[in-house]
Amino acid sequence: MVRRSSTARFMAGAWVFPGGVVDPEDHEDAALQSLAGTFEPELGPWLAAAFREVVEETGVWLTDPVHVEPLGKRVVFDVALAESRRFAVARSAYFANWITPTMVPVRFDARFFIVGVDHKVVPIPDEREVDAAEFVSPHEALRRAEAGNWLVPFPTQRTLHQLAKFASVDAALGEWQNRTVVSVQPRMRVADDGSLEVVMPGDPGFDDLEDVAPDPAALADAARAAAKKGHPVAEVAPPPATPERQPRVELVRAPNPGPYTGPGTNSYVIESGGEALVLDPGPVIPVHVDAIRVALSGFTPVGVVVTHTHPDHAPAANGLGRELDVPVYGFACGDEFEPTVRIEDGSSIPFGESQLISVHTPGHTADHVCFRLGEYLFTGDHIMGGSTVIIEDAAAYMASLEKVAALEPDHLYPGHGSELPEAREVIAEYIAHRVERERQVMAAVSSGARTIAEVVEVVYAGLDSSLQMAAVMQVHTQLIKLKNEGRVSLGSGGVQGSTTVRRVEKSERWPDN
């Protein structure tokens, strides 16, 4: 770790990890050629910057073997290429990503990397950016911080606590080399005594800071004062667990983007009173399951819950349940899923100080279930962020929308896309969309469309060809609803677009219509 110079404009005198800004040279071929090992292309400049900054600040070349040689006025990557030095990417792992709260006047988007060193060396501080440097264990660094001997910023302390869990560097590397890193962006507020507090996602009051932002001038003044004095910002301590404490929800998004999954499947780790449930663990993708394990760290897992059996939501559930030795909850069996505990409408799944209540919502699939947690509603594929839903049964889906509307939730956590804080407005929009889609289908039939394909051409004009079959299925299920209501008549032809359809005149309808 290094101690920032007393003349630094931000966190002067603080003990931190070596690092700095990604410079234009870190994007150049010379920088990327100096990295020995495979890495994600988007991480290349960040890795190059990390290795360069360590050399510039401490003289430590994290090559194979590691050695110490102050840089002087030379350029790191020129030396590396001229002398065939390569930085040890193979002995590194991407560990964390912290983004400074928006209200702080000096902000960073910082990536943290672990790098294994094959033997102990003595770093030499450059006396410009840093005036002290030493190798120190996470436990010792935390001891010095707690004793008041070292000033250690909040993100650095959090990272040290994570590192302290590992018995060795190899253990940490083995744990993190295949994990997905989730970005962390805390929020800030000014306490009654004028000090600056950091509020982490899931902590009490975190969501309130988004809805009712603290006074920016007050936050900026407090941040400047803290930076000028060299004082660390204090973490908000969670209050004692009470039944009123809001459960914390952590999103872990699967790396399975696509036309039907959007940015990927949303898995959730939901914690209350130290116990946690995993909801929709998604497909069996090792890095994604690893990320779920990370999100569970520090909590006692008590169950795995599935909204429906589609392959982007359920297949990882049984394996994770066996690994964690917890029940797996679901409404029905599927091709790659078999619940150990069958739930029905209104089932309660207790955990910690809370309970998850199932709400059977057929329509997208017959087995689909949403889950209510106080004012939260986990909607799976019943309602999605940024998209409408493919449905199997239009009548059942509309009834299910009305059912969740009656619950009057405040916040929706969907199976794909972003969280939806304006829950009631979103549900009303979904209902209005289904009513409008039905009107469009009926209008197309009334105007002369005689097959499903012709209805699709009218209702989904200009649709991408990759979504054409989905549109055919949607029109077909809408027509089934209209047929059951006696409003259209369907002929033969299957579901591929050739089924004949005509409007049923009022005189032909059933007496009660």
List its salient traits.
513 residues, alpha/beta, five-stranded mixed β-sheet, 26 strands, elongated, disordered C terminus
What percentage of residues falls in helices of 4 or more residues? 25-40%
Beta-strand proportion? 15-25%
Radius of gyration: 28 Å
Helix count, DSSP H or I runs of 4 or more residues: 14
Major sheet summary line: 6 strands, mixed
- Structural class based on helices, strands and sheet pairing: alpha/beta
Terminal CA distance reads 78 Å
Shape: elongated
Query: What's the count of strands?
Result: 26
Across the major sheet, the strand order is 14-15-16-17-18-19
Low-confidence stretches: 222-244, 494-498, 506-513
pLDDT averaged residue by residue: 82
Can you describe this structure?
This protein has 513 residues and is of the alpha/beta class. The chain has 14 helices and 26 strands. It has helices spanning 29-33, 44-58, 76-82, 138-146, 154-163, 169-176, 206-211, 216-229, 286-296, 316-324, 394-407, 423-446, 452-459, 468-484; strands at 2-4, 15-16, 35-36, 60-61, 67-68, 87-88, 92-99, 109-115, 130-133, 183-184, 187-190, 196-199, 234-235, 248-253, 266-272, 275-279, 300-305, 328-330, 341-342, 348-351, 354-360, 369-373, 376-380, 411-414, 488-490, 501-503. The strands form eight sheets. Strands 14-15-16-17-18-19 form a six-stranded mixed beta sheet, with helices on one face. It has a five-stranded mixed beta sheet with strand order 20-21-22-23-24, with no helix packed on it. A three-stranded antiparallel beta sheet has the order 2-1-9, with no helix packed on it. Strand 22 (369-373) and strand 23 form a beta hairpin. The longest helix has 24 residues, at 423-446. Residues 222-244, 494-498 and 506-513 have low confidence and may be disordered.
